[in-house]
Amino acid sequence: MIVAKGLNKSFDGFVAVDEISFNVKEGEIFGFLGPNGAGKTTTMNMIQCISPKTSGTLEVMGMDVNTHQREIKKFLGVVPQENNLDPDLTVYENLLAYSRYFNIPREIAEKRIDELLNFVQLTGKRDTLIEPLSGGMKRRLVLIRALINKPKILILDEPTVGLDPQARHLIWEKIKSLRSRGVTIVLTTHYLEEAARLCDRLVIMDYGKILAEGSPSEIVREYIGTDIVETENDPSVIACLKRHAARFETLEDTVQIYTENPQEITYQLLKECPSRPITARQASLEDVFLKLTGKKLRE
Ligand SMILES: Nc1ncnc2c1ncn2[C@@H]1O[C@H](COP(=O)(O)OP(=O)(O)O)[C@@H](O)[C@H]1O
Ligand SMILES: [Mg+2]
Fold first, then answer.
1. What pLDDT digit, counting tens, does each position of 51-81 carry?
2. Which end of the chain is more exposed for a tag (fewer CB within 10 A), N or C?
3. Regarding the domain delimited by 226-282, which CATH topology (the fold level of the hierarchy) does it fall under?
4. Ligand 1 atom with the shortest distance to the CA of 81
């Protein structure tokens, strides 16, 4: 559905997106995971044909973003990072106004709006102005606004940023339900949990580059393995790990051991370096991120 090869975007010589290549398949949820400033929104803007690429190729449904902007936009629904709803209009009027951009006949638009309001449990807010809505309601409204033209590809730029857990879970359910209806979904997020729960495949981005690509479990297995054992970063611990040829990485006060057999290395550590706290857990996307970039996600 979307193919990028060696895609670049510079702003006055500052490289925001640096030679990225990716391929979004029909019907999947494809994620861009990365900290603020990674280049996610810049990439979304190029897909949406609202910001021209600097170089490389980018095709949406086989069409070049440089030459087929109008055609591409017809197939896209977009949830931008900022809500940008019209505060002078009601919920219903916001949706109706949007339907006019796509020249949807009024009668069809009215019917569709009622269905969409019902889909995200906003029917009771139909005639309310925007300002009194909660953050979660505004986000759901922007989500259905993006669905008004029945898009084949839905782009969600940080769909749940700043929302409480209940509101976030509701949006996640809606995104999954759209996938089951065959909508191809591209989302950006800096929430590791969101990426792990929703994405069929994803890329991890930082400083404009793609650092890893695959399904969440493939990425974890490729870069870390299945499990992590953590203990104190201490010379005797390091010596023990070297004796057992363990794969490990040090992070300031802690050492992380990447392993397929957490019992075995835990047993050796307890035997050879007693009285240290040791924890074992499953490896996650966060571990991959730490390993690839050597730092925590920047919020
Ligand atoms: N219009 C612009 N002009 C100059 N720099 C920009 C512009 N838009 C984004 N950037 C820069 O490009 C980098 C990537 O930004 P962005 O794509 O918004 O990141 P993300 O969405 O991953 O947080 C940032 O360093 C940002 O400051
Ligand atoms: Mg962004």
1. 999 999 999 999 999 999 999 999 999 999 9
2. C
3. Alpha-Beta Plaits (3.30.70)
4. 21
